[in-house]
Design a protein that fits this description.
The chain is globular and about 65 Å long. Strands 6-7-5-17-14-9-10 form a seven-stranded antiparallel beta sheet. Strands 13-12-11-8-15-16 form a six-stranded antiparallel beta sheet. The chain has 14 helices and 17 strands. Helices cover 26% and strands 22% of the residues.
């Protein structure tokens, strides 16, 4: 519960944004003070059942209601453009308070990982001279981003006291940077499948879009798509189970209104898909059978083949130490692993993805044990998957929790997916968050403990991408898919 001093005008005024900064085409009045913690609040009112709507009402009762934006009514890029255009006008007129305002501005985004990723992408694309750091308030089913940065993974309280307490946490939070990643996907052109790639991507996977015929990346006779993510890309059995769950929920939404029922259904689908079978009984293709995988390590220009054990049926390329409800597949390597295999902890700002393999769901349960982790395959700044005609007609993939079925080549053709580091965005984090920074000397180092490991057997074109065209949600898309 928030203490009484938080519910006072003196405290609330520190977060206030005047209406004149949020309006377009009107004369902007000079700021009469230097607000200490001005905050723009973006809420997906369709997230978390009725919680999103309740949260919207509470925030608007505390702050200027115009600085609390319902993402179902207005897009974040339009709001941010208005604010920064107005700030630029004030600075040009010599308003010193405007510079302080811009320096202190923060963003709160309340929604699932899809909503948070949308905001991160838009801020990345706007290329502001002083981009505001972002605090993610968990309000959905997928809350890996908030959990990694210390904001929890359960839906928050929506009453006045809870909201004031969260605002106070934001005021005290530290800034961290997070890497962003882009995906290029190229396949032989077949039939048109606009507006998204490749065939059945859900609306909430707004990261993929087809490049235009005039784009430098366009190749005649091929369909080329690009997109991005902040948390992870995965392929194989885990994505197959997730796809089955999402498909069932889409067909029968009335059966998925209870969290315990959802978890039970997910487990049953995992069993039916063979995800819990030992590798030698599991007839699903291994990652090594499906694809050739190449990586580029840091400070190298050469592609290297990545050797993947035949038993691995799921591969995860991870940016954050939070996956599948807050688990950490990479763990934290001990000092001798860091020395002998040149491994590092899973830093969120080091320009590297952690690549982890799993044999089956039982292997995944090792993550629940102290110091447990998956099969550490590599850390890389660039990853390339090449799919040729082979053992399967399709495979399953996920980006930040959103699964799809990916057709594989039927003839002498190749499907290519390439992941590359793009840039960074500023986040707000609690001081005891689990996300670790390579640049922060206060980040704790790993303890030298015995680890449970059952399987110890940027180039210029990428800088062109810009994030918001890939992260902006198109008009007419139902935000409820973002959770």
């Amino acid at each position: 519960m928030a203490s009484e001093h938080l519910d006072k005008d003196e405290f609330i005024k520190k977060f206030h944004i005047p209406s004149s900064l949020l309006e377009q085409g009107t004369e902007v009045q000079c700021l009469d003070s230097k607000p200490e913690h001005p905050v723009l609040v973006f809420i997906n009112s369709k997230s978390g059942g009725q919680l999103g709507g309740e949260l919207l009402v509470t925030y608007r009762s505390i702050l200027n209601k115009e600085q609390v934006i319902d993402l179902g009514e207005e897009t974040p890029d339009s709001v941010l453009r208005k604010v920064y255009i107005n700030l630029e006008r004030l600075k040009n007129h010599g308003d010193e308070n405007a510079s302080e305002f811009e320096k202190n501005l923060k963003i709160i985004v309340a929604g699932g990982d899809g909503t948070a990723g949308w905001l991160l992408g838009v801020v990345s694309d706007l290329k502001l001279s002083q981009p505001p750091p972002i605090a993610t308030m968990p309000l959905g089913t997928g809350n890996n981003l908030p959990f990694a940065f210390g904001w929890g993974k359960r839906n928050p309280g929506t009453d006045r006291s809870s909201v004031l307490s969260f605002m106070d946490q934001v005021r005290k939070a530290k800034e961290m940077k997070i890497d962003s990643w882009h995906i290029l996907m190229r396949m032989k052109a077949k039939q048109a499948c606009d507006p998204v790639a490749p065939l059945e991507l859900p609306h909430s996977l707004h990261a993929f879009h087809r490049v235009s015929p005039t784009d430098d990346l366009n190749v005649e006779g091929c369909d080329t798509y690009r997109g991005g993510f902040w948390n992870y890309f995965s392929m194989g059995m885990d994505a197959q189970v997730s796809y089955a769950f999402h498909t069932e929920r889409k067909l029968n939404p009335e059966k998925f209104k209870n969290q315990l029922v959802n978890q039970s259904t997910y487990a049953k689908l995992g069993c039916s898909q063979g995800w819990f079978l030992p590798s030698h009984f599991n007839h699903a293709a291994s990652i090594a059978q499906l694809s050739k995988v190449k990586i580029k390590k840091k400070h190298t220009d050469d592609w290297q083949d990545l050797e993947i054990p035949n038993s691995v049926r799921s591969i995860v390329c991870l940016n954050l130490p939070s996956f599948s409800g807050g688990l950490n597949p990479w763990g934290t390597p001990s000092s001798h692993k860091r020395r002998d295999r040149d491994l590092t902890p899973p830093y969120v700002d080091d320009g590297l993805l952690e690549i982890v393999g799993f044999r089956n769901a039982w292997h995944g349960l090792v993550l629940l044990a102290p110091n447990g982790h998956g099969t550490r395959l590599a850390q890389a700044q660039r990853i390339r998957f090449e799919f040729h005609k082979g053992s399967a007609k399709e495979t399953y993939m996920r980006v930040d929790g959103e699964p799809w079925k990916q057709p594989l080549p039927e003839n002498d053709e190749t499907v290519v997916i390439e992941i590359s580091h793009l840039g960074q965005v500023k986040m707000l984090a609690t001081h005891d968050c689990r996300a670790m920074s390579a640049l922060d000397p206060s980040t704790p180092v790993a303890l030298d403990v015995d680890e449970k490991d059952s399987d110890e057997e940027v180039e210029e074109e990428w800088r062109k991408f810009g994030a918001a065209d890939t992260f902006r949600i198109p008009e007419g898309v139902d935000l409820s898919h973002l959770s």
